[in-house]
Amino acid sequence: MTTTPSARAVSQYATTTGNLAARMALHSYGTNPQDWFAWLGERLPLSGDVLEVGAGTGELWHRVSHRARLTLTDFSPAMCARLREVPGAQVMRCDAAYLPFGDGTADAVIANSMLYHLDDPDAALREFARVLRPGGRLAVAVNGSDHLAELDALGPVIGRPDLAVRFHDSNDVTAEATPARVAAHFDDVTVERYPDELVVPAVEPILAYIASMIGPLTAEQEDAARVAIEARIDAEGAFRVRKHTVLISAARGSR
Questions:
Q1: What does DSSP say about strands 106-112 and 197-200: parallel, antiparallel, or unpaired?
Q2: How many distinct helices (H) and strands (E) make up the chain?
Q3: Are strands 239-242 and 197-200 parallel, antiparallel or unpaired?
Q4: pTM score of the predicted model
Q5: Model confidence pLDDT, tens digit, residues 67-95
């Protein structure tokens, strides 16, 4: 059964950080020796007034050194509780499409893997432009339509096609479509892909990922998933999963 992106986000994140933690744990099997947060940190503006919208657990700021005056937001009370553990950060619970900040108050806005949780991503992009100072920088991370395709393919195997994130999405936030959306509000848009794939040698991290997406599995579902995953590991030595994540960078012009 389909639902809106925001309703799914509420069900996934409003009261727990566990689902996000399970997914982040799976990404520890990436083959790029520079993990996502380190790679991202090299490309972000990390000084001045920096606003991260949809900041989740704040893991970025536990991994990356900075000189910024940080403001971190999320809609989720559970996530905001974790964000308050980030040293020196101001934390605000709010809607990404209605930011409680004045015009031109930020030097940088970061939206890391969060636009696809919104019913109206363009409303959020307009807000990002509003709160940025002229010349301020935007950094948006989104995934391609083939991101984690091998994990999505396990959905039909267990009778749960809703395992695929895009099964729920109606907002077309993808690496393919989002640069043009950003360009409608910002200047100097660039796109850089993060090179990585997952090589997972065991079944359990994948089962944990599946449960984080669709809830606890029945015994029959777990058995079916285990058979499919073990077959791939036996044949290839690991369960390989393609990744397709891009960083879209842009500047706030004078428009």
A1: unpaired
A2: 11, 9
A3: antiparallel
A4: 0.94
A5: 999 999 999 999 999 999 999 999 999 99
